[in-house]
Design goal:
With about 290 residues, the chain is an alpha/beta fold. The chain has one domain (about 1-275): Nitrilase/N-carbamoyl-D-aminoacid amidohydrolase, CATH 3.60.110. It contains 8 helices and 13 strands. Strands 1, 2, 3, 4, 5, 6, 7, 8, 9, 10, 11, 12 and 13 form a 13-stranded mixed sheet that branches. Helix 5 links the parallel strand 8 (about 150) and strand 9. Helix 1 packs across helix 3 (about 60-85). The longest helix has 26 residues, at about 60-85. The chain starts with a strand and ends in a 17-residue tail after the last helix. It is an enzyme of class 3 (hydrolase). InterPro entries: Aliph_Amidase/BUP (IPR050345), C-N_Hydrolase (IPR003010), C-N_Hydrolase_sf (IPR036526). This is (R)-stereoselective amidase. Keywords: Hydrolase. GO terms for molecular function: hydrolase activity, acting on carbon-nitrogen (but not peptide) bonds, in linear amides.
Length: about 290
């Protein structure tokens, strides 16, 4: 398959037509380059809050409700485009209120056959806990698609090895991210590359980029698109299949060979995925020795 991963800037919209036109243009461009799988970043849906006006979009709480209120319309648009262009799409995540009075951070996944699923963020960052008061969502999922088995680790989730291990049956793990600082970008990138090494799979990282001064929640964004694999047989020695340019909007493309994933898992130079269980019980049998 060919994957397209976005370095995506947020825009302020005066009308739904403006948002619709932007998403259409992005999907059209990726599809015209032969992409089969399109990945938008974490919190890309926050631009939906602009449709409720500047005062609503500025404040975190009111903007969250505004995004959630528009999510059904956004989903309908993405589902239509997935079918129209015969592509799979992970749309930009955003707050969704469906667990009581507090939101989850949810990304929706669209297949060209009309099927729609979602993945919620598992482990929240400090700001998502306080002051945003978000809640963790539902369980991790493996999406069995015509392209292969696909999982999603939303931003911070990619930094936790056991979540990656839970998705180790996946051929591809998508990592939509939103990071304010360069250090945050690299934390997620290192996580994405580590998960690719451990599970001997491909990870696809998308990033929000650029300023959005009209939003308190996502006012500064740093990152770029990237596609990573295990630095082993059938993959680049760096593990980097493709990467964009820092803070430059646009798609980054990479060809992903699932036969290469299967081969490196069966007969790679190292076998992290198969040898993972050998960590236990060694990981709980640490001996402390005084050298004072």
């Amino acid at each position: 398959m060919k994957v397209a991963t976005a370095a995506y800037p947020l825009d302020f919209f005066e009308s739904w037509a403006g948002y619709e036109d932007k998403i259409f243009r992005w999907v059209d461009e990726a599809a015209s380059h032969g992409a089969d799988l399109l990945v938008f970043p974490e919190y890309a849906a926050m631009e939906l809050s602009s449709l409720a006006g500047a005062d609503v979009a500025k404040e975190v709480e009111t903007s969250f409700h505004a995004v959630s209120d528009r999510m059904a319309e956004s989903n309908a648009l993405h589902a239509h485009l997935a079918s129209q262009f015969d592509v799979h799409i992970l749309s930009g995540s955003g707050p969704v209120f469906d667990k009581g009075d507090r939101p989850v951070n949810r990304a929706h996944f669209f297949a060209p056959n009309g099927k729609v699923e979602h993945q919620d963020k598992q482990i929240l960052t400090r700001c998502e806990r306080t002051p945003w008061d978000m809640v963790p969502g539902g369980p991790l999922k493996v999406f069995e698609t015509s392209l292969g088995k696909i999982g999603v680790l939303i931003c911070y989730d990619s930094e936790f090895p056991l979540l990656g291990r839970a998705l180790s049956e996946c051929d591809v793990i998508l990592v939509p991210s939103c990071t304010e600082a360069l250090s945050g970008y690299w934390r997620v990138r290192i996580g994405a590359m580590s998960r690719a090494m451990e599970a001997q799979c491909v990870t696809v990282m998308a990033s929000l980029v650029g300023p959005a001064e009209w939003s308190e929640a996502v006012d500064i964004n740093t990152g770029m698109g990237g596609v990573f694999g295990p630095p082993d047989i059938g993959f680049p020695e760096t593990g980097v299949l493709a990467e964009g340019s820092l803070n430059q909007p646009g798609w980054t493309y990479a060809d992903v060979d699932l036969d290469a994933v299967a081969h490196v898992r069966a007969d790679g130079g190292v076998l992290h995925r198969s040898h993972w269980p050998e960590q236990s019980p060694r990981d709980s049998e640490v001996t402390y020795l005084s050298m004072k």
